[in-house]
Amino acid sequence: MTDRWARKIPSASDPLFVYGTLRFGEVLTELIGRVPEIEPARLLGRRAAALPGRVYPGLVYATGSVTDGFLLTGLTVGEWLVLDAFEDDEYDLLPVCVEAGDRAGYAWTYAWTAEVEERDWSASAFAVEQLPRYLGKCAAWRANLVLLSETV
Hints:
CATH architecture: Roll
GO molecular function: transferase activity
Organism: Nocardia terrae
Protein name: Putative gamma-glutamylcyclotransferase
Radius of gyration: 15 Å
Keywords: Transferase
Distance between the termini: 25 Å
């Protein structure tokens, strides 16, 4: 696991591959106040695993698997900092090779480093069963971040 405060934040021009709750525009709006440019993408050799006791997934190695998600581009340094602070300590920020349309390229993503369930996480089930309550938690987290930092 990487020390969050020693970790290098990608530059604003670097894309972020999102596969879980950050794939929802409503979540991004609660956290960073907008939805950046978004493009469908996929990551080979990994899966979005369900996590014990959590409503969000963790990205883990899985031979033969494909994870569908999105590339976020045009994030500012401040937005990168907010998203990085939002992610649990069990995530590592790693570069990966993703496919978007007919091209392949590198992006950053948050990969999970702790225990996972055998089943995959479902974005559609999350949207129906968890999203409204999760948005409230995101709003409260963001309000607390602003109060703590007074600069974000």
